[in-house]
Amino acid sequence: MTAAEGVQSAENTADGAGENPWQHRGPHDRTGVSPRARAWRTFLETSAVVSSNLERHLQSHTGLKLSDYNFLLLLAEAEDGCLRMGDLAERMVFSPSRLSYQAKVLEARGLITRCPDTHDRRGMMARLTDQGRDTFRRAAHVHAAHIKELFHAVVDEQEAEELQRICLKIQRNASLSSG
Hints:
Layout: H1 3-14, H2 35-62, H3 66-77, E1 82-84, H4 85-91, H5 99-108, E2 112-116, E3 124-128, H6 130-152, H7 157-176
Antiparallel strand pairs: 1-3, 2-3
């Protein structure tokens, strides 16, 4: 079943045409039945399914993990393809705690170089290599096509704007939370 067929199936379910796999969780479901509780669980489970799917697809087609892609993305977006390791850690969406290890692995693969910060010798910089730039460029095409298959095929512009608005609210609130 393709992603689009899976979402069509879920839409049919939401419209009452089929059974929603998230609707009946059994007699021991502790999530709750309120719309917010059901939405939270659906959001969390969907995020996990999508992340797992993106990870598998990216790894099998490019050899990069999603966290590697995110690391290279941040460098590709940075001026001169270079960022302080501390700045990278703050911006990483995936596994910021493993940044030093990840940098060593990417450096060993020839995708980045690390060097002391010329402005502050206590800090380290990560720089995208030419090979890293080429690897990222190829991976970006693969990743973008997969996102179009998973997301763009089933979410229209209005839904995308609403989803973004909701996710940003959740993200801001989570950022303010102490844990």
